[in-house]
C-alpha cells in the first residue's frame, strides 16, 4: 500500500524511503507503533510538539500526562524503526523517567540476600518480558527472558530483530539464546526492529512456549513504486524443549492477520502478539492484536493442543472478537494485555480477560467467552471501565484466586491513575469474584507513590507463603527515583491484604526501571515454594527464591499455677518454675532440616511497658536491669522433634499488685540451620517464621487471694459518696457547698473564697477484699489537684501528675472487707478565669478484684463569678461659688466666662485578681445638664481617660456642645466673671439649702464610656458651673449640692457572672459669694443724690486735710543741714572709774 500522508509514511514506509517525519514527529504522530499515541492521523494531529515526549489528547485536556513516552515505550512502543542504534529505546525510557521518594523495603519470605542475577547484552532490552518454564525431558527449570532489541541471528538480513533467551537457575549470569526464526526473505517480509521476545509465556511444566514479535512486517511489491508494508506481527509456539517440532501442527509461526484486509482500518497494523497467553486447560493459545480495526483491537483464540486432533476434535476454533462485536471505540487497544481462566463468569466455561487501556481515554477490561461450539465468535460477557481519566486501566491484567473460594478473581493495573490532591502514581484494582456476578463487585484499589507507574505490571506469583491463598506482585518501575520497586501482596479469606507483605527495590542492585516485567508461580529451586523473577529495562533480570515458611510451636507450663504468699518454698522467698518445650512445623513434610532457635522467657511484660517493675526475677540471672528476662538457644533436630528447657523464677519482696496474675511470655526465633548444598550449587535458604503465627505464647501465674470467696475470686463491693465544700480565706474550717440549682452545687467565686474541697467517703461493705484499691480523680485545669486531708489513723496518700489534672489516691492493698475511709481532696481555684462556667470532675474507683459496677462518677459544679469591682469618684474642687453679673451664652467667648471650673474623676477599682478575660463593660455617668427651667447647670467641656487605651464617651455632642466657646487650659480669677462687689451684710440670704440631683427638677444626660479594661481605668470630666443660672435662680440660697452619679454596666453579661458594684455619687457644694446686684432699674434721682453726697464728702475731706497742713510745702532753708562742732575730751581709765565708784 502506497503511503498517502506523512502519518502513513512514518508508519509504513521503509526506513530508506521518503523521510517526512523527524524522530520526535514519529513519536508524536505515528499511532500504529508508538504507544505514546496509537491513533489515526486525525487524532495524532491534535498532539502538541512544543515539549518532546509529552502529548495532549484530542479533546484538549492538558496536564493530564496522557500517553507519554515514558509511560508507553513498552511492548509496542517500538512500532517505528528507531534511529540511533540499539540503545535508543532504553535511552528514551531513561530520559523521561521521573523521580520518587524511597520506600522502606519490607521483608517476608522472598530472599533478598541470595538473589540470582541474569544480565544480557547492553541495549538489547534484556528483561523486557519474562516467563518461568520447566522442561520434563531432561528435567530443567528455566527462566525465559525476552530481549526485543537483541541483534539479529546469522541468517537474518536485518540488523536488530530481538530474541528469546533461556537461563538456568544458577549463580552464573550467562544465558543462552534460543535459535528459531533464523531466516528472512526480504521479498515478502522485514524483521528489522520486529521486537521478537516482546512477550513470552509458558504453558507450565512440560508445556509449550509462545513468544511474539508484534512489529514483524509483511512486504509487497518490493523495490517498486507501489511497495508497501503491513505491520501484522507474528508469534511462534515452541515445544517444551524450546525447539520447533515440524511434525506438530500447533508449533511454528502463527500470523492470524496475514492475508486479511489491509489498511489501518482493518488488519494492516494488526500488531499481533503484543500480548499472548495459553489457556489454563492447555487447549488454546490466545493472541492480542491491538492495532486492528483502527486500533480498536481484536482477541483471537486458536486451538493449540494436538491431542485434541487425536481425540477426534478437528474444528475447535479459531474464535475471535473484534470490530462491531466489541462495545469499545477506535483506539482502545483491545488485546493489549491478556489472561484467561475457568470459573470467572460461570462454572467450567472458559473466559478470556482482555485489557483495552485506551478505551474511552480511561481504559477498560473485557470478559469474553465462546458464543457456542458451532460459532467462531467470542462474545462480551462483562466490561469493567476505568474510573480515572487517562489512567491506562487494563494495561496489565491477571487472573488469580485470592480468597481460595474456587472462583477466579481479577486484578487490573492502571499505572497512570492519579489524584490531583494526593501523592498517588498508579493504581491496581482488585475485583473479588462473587460467584460470577460481577455487577455486584466493588473493587479494592491499591495505590502507588507519586509518578511510580504502580500497576504497570501485575502477576500471579502463586501461593508464595504456602498459606493456601494465592498472592500477587505489582511492579512500579518508576518508583524510588527510577530504580523501581515491586510490591508483594498476600491473599486471604477476605480477599487481598492491602498492606504489602514485602517490597523489593532495584536500587541495591544498581538497576533502573526494576519491576517492568514479572514472572512467578513456579518452584525453580525445588524447595516446594514458588519463586519469582523481576525484569527491568537495564538489560538485567533478578530471580528471588522463596524461603520456606515454618511455625515454631511452644508448649509452656508453670508450677505451681497459684502462689500462696504465706508459704515460702524457696528458702525465705517464693519461687515457681517455667517449663518450655519447642517444636517446628513446615507446610511440606519433606522440608526437615536441623534448626537452631533462640528463645526468650519474660515476666510481667505489660507492667514494664507501663514503666512498672516486674514482680518476678529469674534465679539464674544476676541482679541486673534484665533479671525479668531469660534467654537461651536450643537445637531442633527436625519437624516434630521436641526440645525443652526448665527455668526457675523468684517472686520479689514487697510487691503491691497481689491480685493480678503474673504473665510469663515465651517467644522464639530462628537462629540458623545446618548449611548444605543443593543442586546447581545453590545454598539452602534460611527458613522464615510464619508472619500469621502469634509472636509469643503467654501463660499466667496466679496468686492465692486472702479475704476472698471459696472460689479464690475476690469480689469487692466498693461504693463511694461525695460532697463539695469551700474554704473561706483565713479560715481552716470548710463550709459545705449546698446544691442550689437543679441539684447541682453552685460555687460563688470571689476574693473571699479560696479553695474547693471534695469530701469523699469510700466503703467496702459486704464485699471481699479489694486489692490495689484506689480512687483516680481527673480534674480540669481550672480546679486542679492541690492536696489531700485525712483524719484517719492511716493517712490516705495521693499521687498527682505535674499539672494536677489527675491524682491517684491509694485506699489500701487490700482494702479490707467492711472497711471505710473518709478524706478531703483539695482543689485549687487559681486557674479560674471569667470564662469558667462549670467544673467537671471524674472520680473512678479501681481495684484488681472483681467488681463489674465500678462506673466512673461525674461531679459537676456550676461556677458563678462575683466581680469585686467598685467605682470611686471625686470632684476638684469640691466647693465652688458663684457671683457677679448675668451673661448670656451667646456673649460668651471662652469657657472661663461660663463659671467656676470643676474636674470630676471616676476610677474602676478591682480588689481581687487581674481580670484577663475580655469583658465588655462601660461606665455610665448621670450628668446634670439643665434645671427644670431648661437653664444650664454644669457645662461639660472635655472628657479624657487614663488606662490601656483612649476612651471615647458618647454622645459626643454633649461635649462642648456650644462650639463657639473656646477651651482654655488655665482658669481665671473670680474678678474675670463680671464685676463682683462684696458686701458686708448677708441679710438678703434666706439660710436655706438645696440638693440638685437627677430627677423631675433636674434634667440629666447619660454619658456612656466603654472601658477597654477593668483594672486601673480612670475617666476624667472637665466642666464649668454655669454662673448665670445660679445667680438668677439660686441666689437666695445659702448653699447648694450638685450630685453626679456614676455606675458600672456589663454588656452581654454571661449567666455565670455577677457584678456587685454599688453606684457612686460625687457631690459639689455651691454657695454665693455675697450680696448680689439687683437686676431692676435704679431711679435717676437716687443716682444724683448719691453723686452730690459723694462730692460733699470729698470736699469735707479735702478741707480737713488742708487744715491739718497736709497740703503745706517745706522751704529750702528747712532742708539745709545744721552742723555741730565736735569736742574731744580725755576719757578716764578703768582704774579711775573704779576709784570714783568707790
From TrEMBL:
Residue span, Integrin alpha second immunoglobulin-like domain: 708-863
Membrane topology: Single-pass type I membrane protein
GO MF entries: integrin binding
Top-rank taxon, per record: Eukaryota
GO biological process: cell adhesion mediated by integrin; cell-cell adhesion; cell-matrix adhesion; integrin-mediated signaling pathway; leukocyte migration
PROSITE patterns noted in UniProt: FG_GAP, INTEGRIN_ALPHA
Domain annotation Integrin alpha third immunoglobulin-like: ranges: 869-1072
Ranges for the FG-GAP repeats: 258-311, 320-377, 379-440, 441-498, 502-561
Residues of the Integrin alpha first immunoglubulin-like domain: 546-706
Similarity comment: Belongs to the integrin alpha chain family.
Name of the protein this chain belongs to: Integrin subunit alpha 6
Source organism of this protein record: Sparus aurata
Gene encoding the protein: ITGA6
Amino acid at each position: 500500500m502506497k503511503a498517502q500522508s506523512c502519518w502513513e509514511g512514518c508508519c509504513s514506509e521503509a526506513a530508506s524511503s521518503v523521510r517526512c517525519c523527524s524522530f520526535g514527529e514519529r513519536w508524536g504522530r505515528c499511532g500504529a507503533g508508538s504507544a505514546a499515541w496509537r491513533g489515526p492521523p486525525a487524532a495524532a494531529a491534535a498532539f502538541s510538539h512544543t515539549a518532546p515526549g509529552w502529548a495532549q489528547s484530542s479533546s484538549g485536556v492538558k496536564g493530564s500526562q496522557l500517553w507519554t513516552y515514558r509511560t508507553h515505550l513498552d511492548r509496542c512502543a517500538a512500532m517505528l524503526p528507531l534511529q540511533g542504534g540499539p540503545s535508543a529505546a532504553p535511552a528514551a525510557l531513561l530520559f523521561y523517567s521521573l523521580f520518587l521518594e524511597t520506600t522502606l523495603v519490607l521483608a517476608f519470605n522472598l530472599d533478598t540476600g541470595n538473589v540470582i542475577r541474569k544480565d544480557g547484552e547492553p541495549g538489547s532490552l534484556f528483561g523486557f518480558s519474562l516467563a518461568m518454564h520447566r522442561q520434563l525431558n531432561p528435567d530443567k527449570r528455566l527462566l525465559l527472558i525476552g530481549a526485543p532489541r537483541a541483534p539479529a541471528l546469522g541468517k537474518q538480513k536485518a540488523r536488530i530483530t530481538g530474541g528469546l533467551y533461556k537461563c538456568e537457575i544458577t549463580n552464573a549470569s550467562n544465558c543462552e539464546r534460543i535459535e528459531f526464526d533464523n531466516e528472512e526473505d526480504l521479498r515478502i517480509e522485514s524483521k528489522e526492529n520486529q521486537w521478537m521476545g516482546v512477550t513470552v509465556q509458558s504453558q507450565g511444566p512440560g508445556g509449550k512456549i509462545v513468544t511474539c514479535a508484534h512489529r514483524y512486517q509483511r512486504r509487497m511489491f518490493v523495490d517498486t513504486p507501489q511497495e508497501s508494508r503491513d505491520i501484522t506481527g507474528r508469534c511462534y509456539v515452541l515445544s517444551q524443549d524450546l525447539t520447533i517440532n515440524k511434525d506438530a501442527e500447533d508449533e511454528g509461526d502463527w500470523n492470524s492477520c496475514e492475508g486479511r484486509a489491509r489498511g489501518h482500518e482493518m488488519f494492516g497494523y494488526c500488531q499481533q502478539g503484543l500480548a499472548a497467553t495459553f489457556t489454563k486447560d492447555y487447549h488454546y493459545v490466545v493472541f492480542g492484536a491491538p492495532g486492528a480495526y483502527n486500533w480498536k483491537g481484536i482477541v483471537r483464540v486458536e486451538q493449540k493442543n494436538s491431542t485434541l486432533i487425536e481425540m477426534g476434535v478437528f474444528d475447535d476454533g479459531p474464535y475471535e472478537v473484534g470490530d462491531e462485536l466489541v462495545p469499545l471505540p477506535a483506539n482502545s487497544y483491545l488485546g493489549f494485555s491478556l489472561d484467561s481462566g475457568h470459573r470467572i463468569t460461570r462454572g467450567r466455561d472458559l473466559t478470556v480477560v482482555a485489557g483495552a487501556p485506551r478505551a474511552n481515554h480511561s481504559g477498560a477490561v473485557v470478559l469474553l467467552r465462546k458464543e457456542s461450539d458451532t460459532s467462531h465468535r467470542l462474545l462480551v460477557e462483562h466490561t469493567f471501565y476505568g474510573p480515572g481519566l487517562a489512567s491506562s486501566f487494563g494495561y496489565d491484567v491477571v487472573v488469580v484466586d485470592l480468597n481460595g473460594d474456587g472462583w477466579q478473581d481479577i486484578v487490573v493495573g492502571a499505572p497512570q491513575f492519579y489524584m490531583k490532591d494526593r501523592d498517588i502514581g498508579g493504581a491496581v484494582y482488585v475485583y473479588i469474584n462473587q460467584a460470577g456476578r460481577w455487577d455486584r463487585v466493588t473493587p479494592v484499589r491499591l495505590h502507588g507513590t507519586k509518578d511510580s507507574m504502580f500497576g504497570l505490571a501485575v502477576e500471579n506469583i502463586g501461593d508464595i507463603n504456602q498459606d493456601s491463598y494465592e498472592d500477587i506482585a505489582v511492579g512500579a518501575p518508576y518508583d524510588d527515583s527510577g530504580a523501581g520497586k515491586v510490591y508483594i501482596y498476600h491473599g486471604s479469606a477476605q480477599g487481598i491484604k492491602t498492606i504489602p507483605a514485602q517490597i523489593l527495590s532495584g536500587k541495591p542492585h544498581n538497576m533502573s526501571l526494576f519491576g517492568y516485567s514479572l514472572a512467578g508461580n513456579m518452584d525453580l529451586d525445588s524447595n516446594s515454594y514458588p519463586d519469582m523473577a523481576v525484569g527491568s529495562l537495564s538489560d538485567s533480570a533478578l530471580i528471588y527464591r522463596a524461603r520456606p515458611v515454618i511455625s515454631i510451636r511452644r508448649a509452656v507450663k508453670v508450677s505451681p499455677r497459684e502462689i500462696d504468699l504465706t508459704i515460702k518454698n524457696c528458702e525465705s522467698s517464693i519461687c515457681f518454675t517455667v517449663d518450655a518445650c519447642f517444636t517446628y512445623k513446615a507446610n511440606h513434610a519433606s522440608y526437615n532440616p536441623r534448626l537452631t532457635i533462640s528463645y526468650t522467657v519474660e515476666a510481667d511484660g505489660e507492667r514494664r511497658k507501663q514503666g512498672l517493675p516486674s514482680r518476678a526475677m529469674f534465679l539464674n540471672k544476676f541482679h541486673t536491669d534484665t533479671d525479668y528476662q531469660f534467654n537461651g538457644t536450643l537445637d531442633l533436630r527436625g519437624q516434630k522433634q521436641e526440645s525443652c528447657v526448665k527455668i526457675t523464677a523468684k517472686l520479689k519482696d514487697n510487691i503491691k499488685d497481689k491480685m493480678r496474675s503474673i504473665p510469663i511470655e515465651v517467644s522464639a526465633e530462628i537462629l540458623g540451620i545446618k548449611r548444605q548444598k543443593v543442586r546447581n550449587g545453590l545454598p539452602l535458604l534460611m527458613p522464615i517464621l510464619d508472619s500469621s503465627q502469634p509472636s509469643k505464647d503467654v501463660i499466667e501465674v496466679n496468686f492465692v487471694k486472702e479475704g476472698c470467696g471459696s472460689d479464690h475470686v475476690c469480689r469487692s463491693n466498693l461504693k463511694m459518696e461525695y460532697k463539695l465544700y469551700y474554704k473561706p480565706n483565713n479560715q481552716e474550717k470548710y463550709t459545705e457547698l449546698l446544691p442550689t440549682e437543679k441539684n447541682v452545687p453552685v460555687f460563688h467565686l470571689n476574693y473571699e473564697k479560696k479553695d474547693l474541697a471534695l469530701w469523699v467517703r469510700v466503703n467496702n461493705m459486704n464485699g471481699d477484699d479489694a486489692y490495689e484499691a484506689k480512687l483516680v480523680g481527673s480534674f480540669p485545669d481550672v480546679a486542679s489537684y492541690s492536696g489531700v486531708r485525712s483524719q484517719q489513723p492511716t493517712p490516705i496518700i495521693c499521687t498527682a501528675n505535674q499539672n494536677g489534672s489527675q491524682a491517684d489516691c491509694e485506699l489500701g492493698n487490700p482494702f479490707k472487707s467492711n472497711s471505710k475511709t473518709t478524706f478531703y481532696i483539695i482543689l485549687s481555684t487559681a486557674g479560674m478565669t471569667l470564662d469558667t462556667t462549670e467544673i467537671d470532675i471524674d472520680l473512678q474507683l479501681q481495684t484488681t478484684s472483681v467488681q463489674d459496677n465500678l462506673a466512673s462518677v461525674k461531679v459537676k459544679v456550676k461556677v458563678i463569678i462575683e466581680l469585686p469591682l467598685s467605682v470611686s469618684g471625686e470632684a476638684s474642687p469640691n466647693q465652688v461659688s458663684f457671683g457677679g453679673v448675668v451673661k448670656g451664652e451667646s456673649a460668651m467667648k471662652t469657657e472661663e466666662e461660663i463659671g467656676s471650673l470643676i474636674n470630676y474623676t471616676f476610677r474602676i477599682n478591682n480588689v481581687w485578681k487581674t481580670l484577663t478575660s475580655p469583658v465588655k463593660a462601660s461606665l455610665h455617668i448621670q450628668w446634670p445638664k439643665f434645671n427644670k427651667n431648661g437653664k444650664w447647670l454644669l457645662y461639660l467641656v472635655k472628657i479624657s481617660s487614663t488606662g490601656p487605651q483612649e476612651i471615647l464617651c458618647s454622645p459626643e455632642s454633649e461635649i462642648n456642645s456650644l462650639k463657639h466657646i473656646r477651651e482654655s487650659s488655665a482658669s481665671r480669677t473670680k474678678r474675670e466673671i463680671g464685676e463682683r462687689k462684696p458686701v458686708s451684710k448677708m441679710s438678703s440670704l434666706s439660710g436655706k439649702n438645696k440638693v440638685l440631683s437627677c430627677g423631675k427638677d433636674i434634667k440629666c444626660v447619660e454619658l456612656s464610656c466603654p472601658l477597654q479594661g477593668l483594672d486601673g481605668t480612670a475617666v476624667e470630666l472637665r466642666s464649668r458651673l454655669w454662673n448665670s443660672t445660679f445667680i438668677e435662680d439660686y441666689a437666695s440660697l445659702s448653699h447648694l449640692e450638685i450630685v453626679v452619679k456614676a455606675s458600672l454596666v456589663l454588656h452581654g453579661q454571661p449567666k455565670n457572672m455577677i457584678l456587685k458594684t454599688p453606684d457612686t455619687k460625687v457631690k459639689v457644694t455651691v454657695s454665693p459669694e455675697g450680696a448680689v446686684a439687683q437686676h431692676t432699674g435704679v431711679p435717676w434721682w437716687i443716682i444724683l443724690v448719691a453723686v452730690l453726697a459723694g462730692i460733699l464728702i470729698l470736699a469735707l475731706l479735702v478741707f480737713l486735710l488742708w487744715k491739718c497742713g497736709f497740703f503745706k510745702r517745706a522751704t529750702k532753708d528747712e532742708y539745709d543741714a545744721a552742723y555741730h562742732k565736735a569736742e574731744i575730751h580725755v576719757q578716764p581709765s578703768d582704774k579711775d572709774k573704779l576709784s570714783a565708784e568707790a
